[in-house]
Amino acid sequence: MPIFRQMTEWTGNVKFRLKLFISYFLLVSFIIIILGFTYYQISASNMLRNVQESLGNVVMNNNQLLDEKLRDIRDKSEVLPIDNELYQAIIDVKSYDSESLVIADRKITNILFKYFGSDDIYSSFIVTPEFTFGNTVRMFVAPDNFFSSKLYRASIESQGDLAWVPTYSYADTFQEEGMNDLSFEFDRLISAVKELNLTFIDEKGIFRTMPQGIKRPVLMVSLTPEFIGRLFTEYAQKSNLTHLSYGILNKDGDSVVSSAGDPIAERKPSWFDAAAVNKRGSMQQVINGQKMLISYSQMESTGWISYIEVPVADALQELKAIRSYSIVFLAIMLIVSAILAYLLSIMITKPIIRLRKAMKMMERGQFQVHVPERGHDEIGELVRTFNGMNVRIQTLIEENYASLLRQKEAELMALNLQLNPHFLYNTLTTLYWIAVENNQTEMSRIMLSLAEMLQTTTRNKDETWPLQTDLGWLDKYMYIMASRFENLFTITYEVDERLHNMNVPKLFLQPFVENAIIHGLAEMEEGGIIAVKGWIDEDRVIFSVEDNGVGISREHIDGIRSGKVRSTGMANVEKRIKLLYGASYGIDIYSTEGQGTRIVIQMGTFQETSMMKEGASA
């Protein structure tokens, strides 16, 4: 657990680019190694299968050739007992007459040569108790020794069939003790023996057999182990399998031919019983601690089993080159994957690094930074979101800054206006009492209204105040203006009582009422009407100032909206409304020349204005 915890902590502290590089590299490396291992296993399996097929073909070809040779010997051995010439030569021989034996030997030797004169056959004899007939140039078998050997016993047990006696020691089999320490060509032989029941058909067509009581002659045909295993030897010499071994086993598992040297010393292999049952095939078995590949096939003529053994490691020795190439290829692929992992990590982390640098700059107060947007993937979307967020932050900062700036300007203006507000207020009060003492009622009311207006304005430094306060201030202003214009107009108020306590921009109605008096009604002599209204329209609060004056031309309205015609009061009010409530709110002008003008002021929702009130109170 501590190791796992340390690994977790280390992983958490490693940079994302390095983690991405390592994870991608490990993933690709794992895939490459798995593919390489799978490729190696498949190649090894295919190569082993090819070696099995090759060895199986060699074993089958060897068996086919040997079967042809051995069947030929068997077929000729079956024809030999009915050879009239052989019968006559055996019957006519006189064992006590040397000349008769020599003549019979020549005849029988020629007969044997006619049947078994192939170079593949090492020697052929017909052995009788008195004499051994055949070519004795290569080897000689004494009759007494033969009839006491296992070869004779095998011929008797086969009951007239050809019997094969696998590899045996000449000296031991024929009791030639003086030859045990000698090295000679026919020390190891493979022989076929058959008891010959000779028959003869004379000129009269009478079928004759050998007389009863006479020991039957025995045919002995010998082959060398070198001949039997010649094809195996040639294959072993041509093959690059350095530890290949081969052999032939008889039905009892005794060695007939062995590449190990002396087949007589060979023991029955552990896999023989399974091979005897299957008769043909391949198997893998551990022999002396080494895994061996064995291909075997049973001969049809004798029932012997031919086999080839090869270490599996030798069968796969050509795979070493493939292994080397595979290692080089895997190394190249790992290098390429490392390069690709590095490039991929850079491609993925570069936008993230840019974002991190941009955040650092924003942390230092530089909000004008913009990260380049590339692509439409998740990272590209993240960059676009960041840029959008940065723009919104800049907008909010500018709005808050502008609001604070306006507040400071208002405070400065208030300070300028408050050079000595008590002095101005006291002066106006003094003038009011002078007017009262002189019975100047109208003048006293004007002085009182002006003093109250001054007192209301100087005491409230906020940008907003309750609508009821604004309407009270406007009412005093209208009294002064009515006195000035000698009852030229009348003003009416129609405001929803629910709006009286809502906060509104200070003096937002006064500029429009003043414009209506000065520009709309000034040229009239009487009958001017100014209507101030306020209502709630669904989710918006709307005010209007309407007069029945001269109206405004379309060109003049367009000039006001475009800024070509200067309207300080109207522009100031609209700017304050947009800053307080948003760009979707503001002022609309509706006018018809000769009929009057209607100013519509749209503010925020009733809920928003209530919140402003609560904020201002706080």
From TrEMBL:
Gene Ontology cellular component annotations, sorted alphabetically: plasma membrane
SUPFAM superfamilies per the UniProt record, alphabetical = ATPase domain of HSP90 chaperone/DNA topoisomerase II/histidine kinase, HAMP domain-like
Could you give a GO molecular-function term held by this entry? Answer: phosphorelay sensor kinase activity
Membrane topology type, per the record?
Multi-pass membrane protein
* Residue ranges of every copy of the HAMP domain listed in the record: 346-398
Extract the InterPro entries matched here.
Bact_2-comp_sensor_kinase (IPR050640), HAMP_dom (IPR003660), HATPase_C_sf (IPR036890), HATPase_dom (IPR003594), Sig_transdc_His_kin_internal (IPR010559)
- What keywords tag this UniProt record? Cell membrane, Kinase, Membrane, Phosphoprotein, Transferase, Transmembrane, Transmembrane helix
What stretches pass through the bilayer?
A: 21-40, 327-353
Q: Localized where?
A: Cell membrane
Q: Which PANTHER family match?
A: SENSOR HISTIDINE KINASE YPDA
Q: What is this protein called?
A: Two-component system sensor histidine kinase YesM
* Protein species of origin: Paenibacillus cellulosilyticus
